[in-house]
TrEMBL record:
Domain of life: Bacteria
SUPFAM superfamilies reported for this sequence: ACP-like
Stretches for region Disordered: 76-112
PROSITE patterns tied to this protein: CARRIER
Domain Carrier: from-to ranges: 3-78
Originating organism: Actinomadura verrucosospora
Pfam families: PP-binding
Keywords of the record: Phosphopantetheine, Phosphoprotein
Protein name per UniProt: Amino acid adenylation domain-containing protein
Length: 112
């Protein structure tokens, strides 16, 4: 990790710890697992924008849900892709696939 990413890691960690009221947060732990909410994200975002002097899209906090991923994103690092640190959604289950298939079948029946 280079100096910019390392400095950004400290800035992001400080902002999260301040707003979550917790110390010693792990850099890989999901923000929401530590009690983060959308209101707290708005507060962290405001703190970081004021401290960094730049606009940060709200979606960045949902795409980069741990300290390391958000710090790398803000520093423009190699791991700044939208997928870094993002919570993974499970693939749809069999019931969901069946419902989607049935919905598609009804749409195509009406078009014939």
């Amino acid at each position: 990790m280079h100096e910019v990413e390392s400095a950004m890691l400290g800035i992001v960690r400080d902002a999260w710890e301040k707003r979550l009221g917790k110390r010693g947060l792990g850099v890989e732990v999901n923000f929401f697992d530590f009690g983060g909410t959308s209101r707290i994200i708005a507060e962290v975002r405001a703190d970081l924008m004021a401290g960094l002097g730049r606009e940060i899209p709200l979606v960045a906090f949902y795409r980069h849900q741990n300290i390391r991923a958000l710090a790398r994103h803000l520093a423009g690092g190699a791991d700044a892709s939208p997928e870094a640190g993002r919570a993974r959604r499970p693939a749809p289950g069999g019931r969901q696939r069946a419902l989607r298939g049935a919905a598609r079948a009804r749409r195509t029946e009406g078009e014939a």
